[in-house]
Every structure is written in structure tokens, then in C-alpha cells.
Amino acid sequence: MADDTTGNMSQVSNIPIPEKFDGGNGPKQGDLWPKWIRRFERYRIASGLNNKSDAEQVSTLLYAMGECADDILKTLQIVEDKASFEEVKSALENHFSDRRNVLVERARFNRRVQHPGEPVDTLIPDLYKIAADCEYGTLKNELIRDRIIVGVVDDLLSDRLQSKPKLTLQEAVQIARQAEERKHNRDVVRGDATKSSDVYYVRNGAQTKGRYHKQNPRCQESKGPHTPCT
User: Fold this and answer.
1) Taking residues 187-212, what's their average pLDDT?
2) Is 182 found in the same domain as 131?
3) Is the distance from CB of 120 to CB of 152 less than 8 angstroms?
4) 44 and 64 co-located in one domain
5) Which domain holds residue 154?
6) With contact defined as beta carbons under 8 Å apart, do 56 and 11 qualify?
7) Would residue 74 count as lying in a domain?
8) Do 184 and 121 meet the contact criterion of CB atoms below 8 Å apart?
9) pLDDT tens by residue, 42-80
10) Which residues does 37 contact at the CB level (< 8 Å), separation at least 6?
11) Other CB atoms closer than 10 Å to residue 144's CB: what's the count?
């Protein structure tokens, strides 16, 4: 058992560290930081780093960020070897949050609608992604739900969602996906039914292919495959 555990830990520790935070000193650092720190948090858990000491976690975080980390720490007046991981992370969050225009992010969120031909499974994850930078707090799920209701292309679906006064985000997502799936299935069935006007006839024991033209009375009297009547 000990050998298996050691082997598993060795495999986990070989997970590559995230690429450095290139936006540290750039104009879009406030927008890029949430994405980067989410990736680092996944690495932190998957690699087992979260079970290490605060000193090791802080050191790994700053190393992963790259050269920009030293410059930022100086402005935050943080003593690297005395602060906990959560303290350093929180300070960095506040630092980059000040450089992200929340109003712009919320405007993006409120303008996001489903485009013609776009599946709801593209719209919904994008709403989650934008909302993550909007600082909506406990209202986030409700606002994503509302955005789905007013943002879907299908007016009948929107009306159906609005008719449910206690609609949750999970229910809105499920109903939207089911409605889109049903519409897709209807389109497939109708497409198969009208895709081709070819009719197959069995004549003299062999299957041949021809066209049946109902618009001309003389064609209605014809039997079997033939060239179009004029």
C-alpha cells in the first residue's frame, strides 16, 4: 500500500505548473488575472500543493506568476515569508480588481445575447465566464438566469421561461437545452422528409430511380420513371 501511495503522489507532483502570468504589467492585467488564478488553483489542488506549508504555496504562486510578482509585492508591502497563501492571494485579488473595470464587464454581460444559429450550450458557459468578473456576489445565479430568459433567440422559449415565477438557474438551463434539442429533432425529421423528391419504383423485379411530377396531369397518368413532362 505504501508503494502505491508513493507512486500516486509522484504522478500528481509531475503535473506541469501553469505558464507565467504574462499580463502582470500589461493594460489588461485586471481581465487576465481571474482566468490565470483559477488555473493556478486547479493546479494547486491537483498537484497536492494545497497540503503543503504556506511558505511553499506562496513561493510556488509567486514563481508561477513570473517576474511581475516581485514588482507587485513591493507595492503591496507584503513580507513573502511571513504571509499565508490566502493573505497573498487576497492581496493580489484586490490589486488586480482595482485595475479591472467592473462596469465594463457588466455592460458586456448585459449585452450578451444568443446569436442566430448559436447553441445555448455556447451562450450559457459564456455568461458564466463574463459574470465571474462582474462581482455580482450572491445575485450571480439569478442574473445569469435572467440573461438567459431575455437573451435566447426563441421568443416562445423566452415566454415559457418568464411564465415560471420561481424558475431557478438550473431549471432555465435544462428547459433551454431541452427546447433546443426538440427543435433540432424536428428540423432533422422535416429535413429528411423533404430532402429529396426522388421516388423509388420496383419494376420488372428491379429497383430503379425516377421522379414523380404531380403538377402536370399527364404526369399523373404516367407510370414508372420517366423524364419530366413539359
Assistant:
1) 47
2) yes
3) yes
4) yes
5) 102-188
6) no
7) yes
8) no
9) 999 999 999 999 999 999 999 999 888 888 888 887 888
10) 89, 92, 93
11) 22
